[in-house]
What we know:
The chain has 489 residues and is mainly α. The chain contains 16 helices and 5 strands.
Amino acid sequence: MSNLFYKTTTPFILLGISTLVACGGDSGFNGSTTTDTQLKALIQTEGLTGSPLEKNNVPAISSPAAQLGMRLFFSKSLGGDKDSACVSCHHPALGGGDSLSLPIGVEAEDPDLLGSGRAHLASGTNYDGGPTVPRNAPTTFNLAGWDEVLFHDGRIESLLKTPHQNGAGGISTPDSAFGQLDTSAGANLAQAQARFPITSPEEMKGFHHQDKNNQQIRDFLAQRLGSFGTPYWLDKFKAVFNSPNGTASQLITEQNITFLIGEYERSQVFIDTPWKKYVEGDNTAISDAAKAGALVFFNTPANGGAGCSSCHAGDFFTDESFHNLAMPQIGRGKGDGDGSEDFGRFRVTGQASDKYAFRTPSLLNVEVTGPWSHAGAYTTLEATIRHHLNPQQAIDNYDINQIAQSGVQNLAKMQTNTQKAIDSANFEGLNLNLTDTQISNLVAFLKTLTDPCVKNRQCLSPWILDSTDTDQDPNGDQLIAKDSNNLDL
Length: 489
């Protein structure tokens, strides 16, 4: 990851899945130079190459491990009550997420319906009229690019903060004390995170296994998969791990399962963007509006920009750090404060300065990974950008209509809860002047960070199981996702 940690001296504005950039100031044009000349100079200063990671360092989707990982990713057998799978919240055709502000994990009305129309059973456990999961589903796209932390609060964290060495120094997880090695975390950050959705009652574990701790539910699900009456899974594990005489108890383990899921996730590398082509020398790869937006994004305020790259740094567009931007707090929350708040990174570190702070997301493919913010409060890139022009005004005038039909809870508490983040001494938001044209240009620039493949169902097909697949689990537990029109996703 080229120069991931380049930062200007002051963090200004953030943007993305957890938070989104808003940038102010002049467009950055200088009459004595061309736009391309200015941008090329900024690209050189930022140390950008256009390539956030090397594709030859990650598995191809065609590899045996990624292929088996995909089948596990789409398997409801790994849901405690067999009504959810990893793909329930992270489908490639939905931007590697679920296109919802907040996810519906277990106890959905129709477990196979993903995206718009997915709803929680009224008879479900702890039903309160809305989504059961308190945070927006992060995209799995380019997960292999993360070196330091995963999840909105970074609770999966590499203990060796050297690019492309994640795991070599060990990984800290919720199963270990903060900053302490989890000896069972696995080979890399992807495997470490794959071990945790199945431990969450709301996401995959369900509410009929509360007698099992984290490791017990992992082992239970592995044993379930290995004890099925057909050789379907065992034959595949034997082939992938080159162990023709291996038994189910030897091969179908929680460590092997999560390793394989991690390999499937790490194969989701989508970085062939127009911006990459521009950085590599094709001046026609992006529009004039996008170039103007890039100048605002990369220039410092002193040079007519907003220093957005101080936090969205490098080719991966993130500093992998945590910032409080007072994004709207909606949904169930994480149980903090009065129960409807979410203290973010503070929940992991216990440091007061981390309260209301969330991870800087990567901006690659951000166009398709909405709704945006840690709670999915904004449904357009423009609205998310405008939040940063004046956070107080944005919260005072928040448009509830954009998510009113989704049944998200605690909308009446949103302003009170979010005001606490705004009033925090650590709040990093800036009130910047940004014209409508600058906002439009910034959106245009952000869209140049989209790999065309993620908007093309045929291009994504190698990563998706659908009804045409002839090698499905004979137990019928593969989740063949459909949309609200009953069509394959």
